[in-house]
Amino acid sequence: MGIESITVVTDMTTKTLAFIVAAAFSLTTAWAADRAPNVAHGKILHNKNCTGCHDNRLYTRPNRIIHTFADLHARVQFCDAAANANFSLDDLNDVVEYLNTHFYKFKQ
Q: What is the pTM (predicted TM-score) of this model?
């Protein structure tokens, strides 16, 4: 096998591998989206990871900075990173759902 043949095979292998990884990630995201958020699990995660920085009064104060469901989701993502909680996508959705159900009550 010549160098040109090896280069073509390597390039095809790299592209195939990239496609498989991208497809697997897409399927994982789609499957995660099908899972209904678990409010009880969200409360557990919230109590374990969020109350070290603030208590629940933050969510009900008159001058709160969260005004939409999208704001809430973005803020939980920000706090996840700031607190190094390392939430999975399901964990993040569970915490957002807990906060929305018990405090914010935004329509989705």
A: 0.69
